[in-house]
Every structure is written in structure tokens, then in C-alpha cells.
Amino acid sequence: MRPTESRASPGVQSPPERLEIDIATTRPGTPGGIFMRQFWHAVYRTQDLPIGHVRPIRIMSEDYALYRGQSGAPLVVAYRCPHRGAPLHLGGVEDDAIRCVYHGWKFDNSGQCVHQPAEEAGFARKVSLRTFPTREYLGLVFAYFGEREPPSFPHFPHRQSEGLIQVWNHEHVPCNYLQSFENSMDEVHVAFAHQPGGSHVKLSADLPIITAEETAWGMLRFGTRRTGKVRQTLHYAPNITRVIVPPLAGMDGVGGWSEIYFSFTPVDDENHLWLITSHVEVTGKDAEAYRAKRAEYDSKFAAAPLVMDVVRDIWSGKVRFADVTHPDLAIVQDIAVQAGQGRIEDRANERLGRSDAGIILWRKILTRELLAIAEGRPAKKWETPPAEVVPTLGF
Ligand code: FES
Ligand SMILES: [Fe+2]
After folding, report:
1. Which ligand is in closest contact with the Cα of 98?
2. Which of 194, 287, 378, 380 supports an S-S bond with 200, CB 3.0-4.6 Å?
3. What is the Cα 118 distance to its own chain's centre?
4. Does residue 9 belong to any structural domain of this protein?
């Protein structure tokens, strides 16, 4: 039979080939890349970007320059200068403008070229640099990379009560972002992966039954305990988890539990960032005590080996998972298992069970949305999450 001939009987059409959808990729132009570019993304910690500094960033397999002008506003711009492609982060900030180091072309904060030292007057106004909407919120810089108008900002609410806003150590994790987002939907791992060290002991008392439901803004997930109490966690589309968690290792006794906003931002398909802020409900003297304890914790962290070095020692078998000690133990444990699944997890060969209900639902939602994009059908119009839906402790 020649390759062009069909095996189907005359008059019977073969079923259309099933479109394979890659739910993990965020490369530009792919359904996953188009889906992800509908949303704001956390790209950097506010505290790491002083006025007058430029940094290279890579988000969803594309490079950019991020700088903070003299007015204090951060701005994401194209990575390469439109003249002859030099990386713009090699250049300098002048007021709110950026100047390329190669031949001195200068671009204002709308991207308009305003100075070309070696060119004729009039050429500059014909040249511009691509800029991307950029904002700050909860100690992080966010940017929007889509083609359309960006959604409203802030794109998710935070706890309304008084308290301390704490930005965590930023981590570059060597695996696809979806593994971390899925891990945040997997409450059962807490009783096992975080058992050594006992940092999450209260969550390990019994195994919750996991259920989940889609919302207008993402997914609500419930962990129901034997007592009937329910821990509710919010997953804002496409990569933010808002949850209440135990105190960081070493922070017990001050401030209690805190509400955490995790952003899992893709760097490319095989790497992502953890950009995390917590809201700790402490005021007055308690806040001072918390700050002091946090400073102690930060100095221990600064003196400790790098998280990824410890993870590599676990992977190579040099250190047993159960024996690891580190000020950020839970983070070491999480990265060891999540990035240990492989750079891009082989989802075709998993055996999912009932405790994976949150992961199963989110994959269905992702697949549905990416298929709609791939086939040119209308996709879901995601709404800004309401302030009144909040995570609960469930104890
Ligand atoms: S490459 Fe930037 S000014 Fe020439
Ligand atoms: Fe974890």
C-alpha cells in the first residue's frame, strides 16, 4: 500500500488525528506560549533592582533587559539594541532612559530613540525599542509580554489585615515551571517529602482527601482532614499559588503561620524561578521579634551552602535525603523532588491517583485552553480574582 492510500472503507472518513498538545512549553508562538502571555508574570525581586541598574532577564525562552530609572519605576525592554544588536544590559541608565554601550544610542522610557551620537539629526525619531508594561507589587517586579492590552493590575489580591510583607530568597530551579505549580497542588507530598526535619509536622497528622474545582480565575483546591476541617488553597491562573503554610524552618515561635504567594515563572522550558512573598500577620512588638528572628535566619542562610549545591549532593547520592540539614530545608526538599522528576517531567508515563485530583483538573483546564488556542477557537476569558476568596488553614 502506498503511503497516500487510506485503509478506511470507501465513504468512511478516518477520524481526525488527535492534536498533541504540549502543556509544559511556554516558547513564543506555541499554544502554551500564547496562553501564558495573557497574564502578568513576576520577573525579579524589587530589592535586587536599585535605581540606575540594568539586569538581563530571560522569561519564557526570550531575553529582555530590566532597568530602574531615576524616577524609581522599573521597565522591561527588548534585550538587543535595534542598531546592531548589542545586549542593552551592558549599557547605562540616564534619568529614565537607557543608553546602549556599543555606539551610544539612547532610548527614553517609551522606547523612543532620542540620541544617536554619530548619526544625522532626524534618524533617531525613526527608531524605537520594544518596551513591556512593568509594575511592582508585594516586593516583586511584574511584566506583561502579551500582544494585547494587559489585564488589570494587581492581577491577584493580597491579605487585607496588617502585617509584615516578607520577600523570600529567590531560587532558579532547573526544571519546567509546571512541575512546581503542580507540586503546590499536591498537599499529600508534605507528609513525606517534608517529613525529615519535621518543618511541616502539623500538616502531616493525617493525609487529606484532595478535591478541586475550576473558578473564573483559576482553581480552588481543598484538603479535607479526618476531622472534617478543610484547608483551602488558591491557584491563580496560570502559575501563582496562594496558601497558608507553617513558619519557615527556624522561625517557629514568632508570627505563626503565614500566607504565601508563590510565583513560578518560566525562564525557558527547562528552568524557572521561584519568586515568593509572604504576609505574616504580626504587628508592633511581635513584628519586631519576627524581624529579629528573620535577620538571624537570613544570616544562617547566607552562611549555608547554596540550595542547588545541596540538591545536587542529594541527587548524586553523596548525602541522604533524610539526613539533609539546611536553613531552607523545605525548599531543598521540594526542589530535590520536583527538579528530580527531570527537566521536563515525562507525563505520558505517570500513574495518577485520587490524591492527584488538583493536578488532574489543572491539566484538563490547560489542555482545553491550549487546544482552543491551537485550533483558533475562543479561549476562556480569565477574570481578576476576587478579594473575598482567601486560603484557609484547615486546623
Ligand atoms: S548596537 Fe547599540 S548603539 Fe550600536
Ligand atoms: Fe513542598
Report:
1. 1
2. 194
3. 42
4. no
R_g of the chain computed on alpha carbons: 24
- Ligand 1, atom 3, residue with closest C-alpha: 103
- Is the Cβ atom of 86 under 6 angstroms away from ligand 1? yes
Contact by Cβ (8 Å): 124, 115: yes
Q: Hey, which residues does 223 pair with through a beta bridge?
A: 210, 231
CB 277 within 8 A of CB 248: no
275-300 pLDDT, tens per residue? 999 998 888 888 888 888 888 888 88
pLDDT of residue 255: 66
What are the grid coordinates assigned to 112, written together? 523612543
Ligand 2 (single-atom ion) residues, CB below 5 Å:
334
Given its phi and psi angles, is residue 100 left (phi above 0), alpha (psi -120 to 50 degrees) or beta? beta
Taking only the tens place, the pLDDT of each residue in 244-264 is 986 665 666 666 678 999 999
* CA 352, 358, 364, 366 torsion-angle sign: negative
Contact status, residue 51 vs residue 72, Cβ threshold 8 Å: yes
The whole domain housing 79 covers 40-144
Tell whether 192 is covered by a domain: yes
**Closest Cα partner for 195 from 330, 345, 379?**
330
